[in-house]
Design a protein that fits this description.
With about 190 residues, the protein is an all-alpha fold. Helices cover about 65% and strands about 0% of the residues.
Length: about 190
């Protein structure tokens, strides 16, 4: 019997992107769910958003390492070329994963509005201008969370007890995200492209 991987655990625990048909779907995962996914805990729900979020951590790590090599004044030309290539690949992968998350969020919000009923999903044309538009997508926020998670993880592996400023930034970002998610779910804030 082999060791279960992250994906194997997902297959055992998840029923699909939105779960069984009789369970009301939560439109957006909480910041705690994102952090658990970053840490490698297989999500039980919101797999369509949290699986790509998990992959963002590896991409952010690849980006960070390549960036460090490019900033080194002792790296050889070959190492610099390789780092430049890795940086481009990581950035492309991050953008791809952000798009996957944003597509999943848009679909989830449409399903959520349908579950709540047609009346709740209708936007009155006379109040559209009053709904605040957020300038950053959930995928972009998840990418920033993953970047901060990777920074905190990398720094906690180093010796020394210095305070990690990225940890505070991650906490603040998570709190802001949870407030945004609540506003999106109640219709008080709109996401770009949704």
């Amino acid at each position: 019997m082999g060791t279960a991987t992250h994906d194997d655990d997902h297959d055992k625990h998840s029923v699909g992107a939105s779960g069984p048909g009789w369970v009301p779907m939560e439109p957006l995962p909480s910041s705690e769910m994102f952090l658990a996914a970053f840490g490698g805990k297989p999500p039980l729900t919101a797999v369509d958003i949290l699986d790509p979020a998990f992959d963002l951590v590896a991409c952010q790590r690849q980006y960070r390492r390549a960036y460090e090599v490019l900033g080194s004044d002792t790296a050889s030309a070959d190492k610099l070329r390789h780092a430049a290539s890795e940086l481009v690949v990581a950035q492309t992968d991050i953008e791809f994963l952000v798009a996957i998350i944003d597509d999943a969020v848009a679909e989830r919000l449409q399903q959520y509005r349908r579950q709540r009923g047609r009346a709740a999903s209708r936007v009155r044309t006379d109040v559209v201008g009053e709904i605040a538009l957020h300038t950053e997508s959930i995928g972009e926020i998840a990418a920033r969370m993953a970047d901060l998670w990777e920074a905190v993880t990398a720094k906690t592996k180093r010796p020394g007890g210095d305070e990690i400023s990225e940890a505070r930034q991650l906490v603040d970002l998570c709190q802001g995200y949870d407030c945004l998610a609540a506003e999106v779910e109640t219709g008080r804030r709109q996401l770009p492209g949704v």
